[in-house]
Specification:
The structure is a single chain. By secondary structure, the protein is of the alpha/beta class. It contains 17 helices and 20 strands. The chain has three domains: 88 residues, Rossmann fold (3-Layer(aba) Sandwich), CATH 3.40.50; 212 residues, Mur-like, catalytic domain (UDP-N-acetylmuramoyl-L-alanine:D-glutamate ligase, 3-Layer(aba) Sandwich), CATH 3.40.1190; 144 residues, Mur ligase, C-terminal domain (Protein-Tyrosine Phosphatase, Chain A), CATH 3.90.190.20. The strands form three sheets. The protein has a nine-stranded mixed β-sheet, with helices on one face. A six-stranded mixed β-sheet has the order 15-16-20-17-18-19, sandwiched between helices. Helix 1 packs parallel to helix 2 and helix 6 packs across helix 11.
Length: 460
């Protein structure tokens, strides 16, 4: 009799896991405590997969041989605790999918920058003719792709929530960008538990594998001293070093793949990279190292770097209206992401921030805010924390309760040559459905503003 697989959550990862489980001959049941999107419901119906929505039927779920859960379901959830108490293994979609592919895994994690780095790594490999898939937290189901399994590599963006339920998954190239305080409500407000979660990306790596890490992050380097890592290590830094890896010096990225050489063997000009800011140089070095480890020639990597376009809502340049540049960084939901964003611009910044505060420590970014920001537009239902942190430090500090109002206030505060930056530092759920909705509203208003400017110019 086929093993009984239960999948909790019927989003992209859950539906993908269900389709793969059915393809591999398992008896499959999908349970979603919320509503299932029509797209995923159709896919389940087409494959004759039984499912329920709006409820978890414990009597069915607790008959499972194995449970695959959505990363959005915390381990503390009652249904997960009941499964574990009964001895039912609970794993992630990525853990399940990896069992059924021989493709090599390039896994990317970090509190900030993992989406850009995963997209960039995938872009380089694809541009250079390698058969490569993109999966994980970036919104593409690995399990769904593994059904046909037509690639040689998968670039997988992995969140801490996914890592928590990965046990046998092996990454052949792992990238760890940084670890800063975030999502601590899922880790009993214990930062060390979150650190340990991120380092699960090195789990099962062997001496044949490669670990790329940001050497300037003290949390990462400190934890590495406690870890017994068998994989070859490649350090990425914004300062010169002599370790295998890469560093930024002047206007060039320098690469050294050898363990015994003091002289970097390869260089890439910063001007060849289609991304702004020092943090994106870290992303570019990490992705380039991964590509070099896949035996891609440097000149092909350079060509790919120059043609890359970042994903929406991540320092997304929207253009110029009335001489002012507009940038959508709606995915910046913590202070570290805002720091990286502000670091990217030399021009004066009108900063739109606010939303659901996750316990941000605004002291950590006061210096850069004071040096870069000329006006702060607080966009949220409760802006008290932002006002207390910056109200006396920034010349202009005003409140808005809608995106329309925020853009209008930002436009009034900006002068020719300035940057209006939506980089909220907060979650979006007070005024918006999610960070995408927040960014899309911003983009739409900026687009309309540019249209009005164009029509005015035609009239003149």
């Amino acid at each position: 009799m086929a093993d009984n697989i239960v999948i909790l959550g019927a989003g992209e990862s859950g539906c993908g896991a269900a389709l793969l489980a059915k393809a591999k001959g398992f008896k499959v049941f999908v349970s979603d405590n919320g509503s299932i999107q029509d797209l995923y419901k159709r896919q389940l119906v087409e494959q004759d997969i039984k499912f329920e929505e709006g409820v978890h039927t414990y009597a069915i779920i607790l008959q499972a041989t194995e449970v695959i859960k959505s990363p959005g379901i915390p381990d503390q959830a009652e249904i997960i605790q009941k499964c574990l108490k009964q001895g039912i293994p609970v794993i992630s979609e990525l853990e399940f999918a990896a069992r059924y592919t021989k493709a090599r895994m390039i896994a990317v994690t970090g509190t900030n920058g993992k989406t850009t780095t995963a997209l960039l790594t995938h872009h380089i490999l694809k541009h250079c003719g390698i058969r490569v898939g993109l999966a994980g937290n970036i919104g593409h189901s690995l399990a769904k792709q593994v059904i046909n399994d037509l690639v040689d590599y998968y670039v997988v963006e992995v969140s801490s929530f996914q890592l928590d339920t990965m046990f046998q998954f092996r990454s052949h190239i792992s990238i760890l960008l940084n670890i800063t305080r975030d999502h601590l409500n899922r880790y009993d407000h214990d930062f060390q538990k979150y650190v340990a979660s991120k380092f699960r990306i090195t789990r099962n790596m062997t001496g044949e594998d490669c670990f790329i890490y940001f050497a300037d992050d003290e949390v990462v380097t400190s934890e590495m001293q406690r870890q017994q890592l068998e994989a070859a290590r490649f350090a990425v830094s914004l300062a010169r070093h002599q370790l295998p890896g890469a560093f930024l010096e002047g206007d060039k990225l320098h690469f050294n793949m050898s363990t015994g050489s003091d002289v970097p063997s390869m260089e890439i000009a910063v001007t060849d990279i289609a991304l702004p800011g020092p943090h994106n140089m870290v992303n570019a070095m990490s992705a380039s190292l991964a590509a070099l480890l896949c035996d891609i020639p440097l000149h092909e990597i350079v060509t790919a770097l120059s043609s890359f376009e970042n994903a929406a809502h991540r320092l997304e340049y929207l253009g110029v209206a009335d001489g002012v540049s507009f940038v959508n960084d709606s995915k910046a939901t913590n202070v570290d992401a805002v720091f990286y964003a502000l670091q990217s611009y030399e021009q004066p910044v009108v900063w739109i921030a606010g939303g659901v505060d996750k316990g941000n420590n605004y002291l950590a970014i006061q210096d850069i805010v004071c040096s870069k920001v000329k006006a702060l537009i607080c966009l949220g239902v409760d802006n008290q924390a932002l006002l207390e942190a910056f109200g006396e430090l920034i010349p202009t500090c005003v409140e808005a309760n809608s995106m329309e109002m925020a853009v209008a206030l930002a436009t009034d505060a900006a002068s020719t040559g300035d940057v209006v930056l939506l980089s909220p530092a907060c979650a979006s759920f007070d005024l918006f459905e999610n960070y995408q909705d927040r960014g899309d509203q911003f983009k739409r208003l900026v687009k309309n503003k540019k249209k009005v400017n164009s029509s005015e110019l035609l009239v003149l």
